[in-house]
Fold each of these.
Amino acid sequence: MTVHDPALGSQAVSRLSQLDDLEACVVIYLRLWCAGPQGRCAMRSDLTIGLGKSRAALTTKAFAAMVDLLALHRRRPLHHRALNSACLHPDEANFARFVANAASGDREDALWLAMLMVRADLAPQLTAVAADFGLRIRQMLVQRPDPATCLH
C-alpha cells in the first residue's frame, strides 16, 4: 500500500525551481534531448560526470528507450519549454512526476500517468523504463557532492 502525501500534486507547479532534484533532472534532460545532438551530448557528458562512462551509457539508453516509446506511441505530443526557461510546462511537470513515481516504486500512480501518455498496453513497458532511468538518476544525485545537479 502506498502512503498518500496530500501535499503531493495539490499545488500547481509552474517553475523548475519548485521541483525536487530528481524531477528537475528529468525536465532538464528532456529539454536537452529535444534540443538535438548538442543537447544530447551535454546530457551524456553530465551523466558521465555523475555516473561514470558505462553507467552513463546505460542511463542514456534507458532515457532514449523512454523517449522512443513516447515518440512512437504517444497519445499526443509531449510539450516542453526552452532549455534556459525557468518556467515549467504542465507536460514537463507530469512527465517528471511520472518518472519520480516509477523510481520510487509507486507503480499504480506511475502506470496511471503512463496511460495518459501512451496506449494502455504499453504503459507497463514505459513505466519499467522510467523506473530504470529514475533510479539511475537518483543514484547519481546521491553520489554527487555538489547539490547543484543536472546542469542547473
Note: The chain is about 65% helix and 0% strand.
Amino acid sequence: MLRRTFIALTTTAALSTSAFAAGHSKDIVDTAVEAGSFTTLVAAVEAAGLVETLKGEGPFTVFAPTDEAFAALPEGTVEGLLADPEALAAILTYHVVPGKVMSTDLSNGMMATTVNGADVTIMTEGGVMVDGANVVTADIEASNGVIHVIDAVILPE
C-alpha cells in the first residue's frame, strides 16, 4: 500500500511538473500563479497582504489548497474570509511552515509549527496527509521554498 501510494505521488508529481516547468527559478507566488489551479489561493494571499512575504527570501513550505479545495468550503466562506483580511491571514499562515520541508523529510505523526504559530500534524501511512488534507502533489520546488498541493483547506482550531 505504501509503495503504491509513493508510486502514485511520484507519478502525479512527474506529470504535474510540466505545469510548474520553470517553477524552480520562480518564487512561490509566481509558481502558484503559473500553475493556474490556485487562483483562489493567490487571490486570498493578495487580499491578506501576504504576497510580498511569500515572494520573500524564505525558505517556506506551503501546503497549497487547489481551487477545488476552496470550492468545497461551505457557501459564502471564501467571500467572508476575503472580506476579513486578519482572519484570512491567520488561515493562510496556517498553510505555511518556515523552512524547506521536502516529502523525504516527513515522518508519520510528525508535528510542524506553522507561521500562524499553531501545529499541523503530518501523517504518512496510506498517503501523506496534513491535518486530514491529502497531499496530491509533493515537492514542487520554487526559488524560495517548496509547495505541496493539498486537496482541502486546513483550518486552525
Note: The helical segments are 2-16, 28-35, 39-47, 51-54, 67-71, 77-82, 85-93.
Amino acid sequence: MSRRTFDLGVYLVTDRPALMGRELLDVVGRAVAGGATMVQLREKTAATREFVELARAVLGLTRPRGVPLIINDRVDVALAAGADGVHVGQDDMHPADVRALLGAKAIIGLSVTGEAEARAARGMPMDYLGAGPVFATATKKDAGAPQGIPGLAAMLALSEVPVVAIGAIKEANAREVMETGVAGVAVVSAICSAPDPHDAATQLRRIVEAGRTR
C-alpha cells in the first residue's frame, strides 16, 4: 500500500469560535505561511454544503504549500472537496471503513485517550494517532481527563504509528511535550487565538524542530 508522506510537526486544528472575530481563511493562511505543517478543518455546526465550500477554499491555501488538509470526522466532505484525509474519534466511523472509502493514499488519523484506546488502535489502518488531552482543555468539551506527560508517553509507547499530542499545548509547554518523542503538537487556540498566527506557528515550529534534533 502506497501511503503519503506528511509532517505532523505543527498540526493546526481550526476552531472558528477561537478566531477572535477574524476570518478563518486569513488565520489559516498566516499559520501555514508561518510554519504549520498540517491543517485539520473542524466544523461541528456547519451545514454540509458550507463545510465542503470552506474545505475547498482552505485547500486553495494549503495545497500550493504542500500542507495536507485533514477533515474532522466527515468522510463525505473530504471526498467532495478532494481533501488529503480524515481524522476520526472513538465514536466516529472506524478507520478501516474510512480507509475503504478514501483509499490507500488518504491520510487517516484517530484520536485516543489513555492506554486502553492506544492499545486497541494497534493494527488499525490509520497513519497517525492524536493522543491526549495532555493538559486540561476547554476547547473540546468531550476531550476526557488530561493524561499529563506520563500518560502521553505511555500512549506513545503503545503506538505503531506516529503520534501527535493534543490538549492545551502552547509555546510555554511544547518543549516538554516534544521531549516525549512525539512527532509533533496539535494546537487550536495557540494559533487560532494568537495575536499573530504567523508568529505563533513560527515559534511552535522552532520548538518542534529543536525537539527533533535532541
Note: The beta strands are 10-13, 38-41, 69-72, 85-88, 107-112, 128-131, 163-166, 184-187.
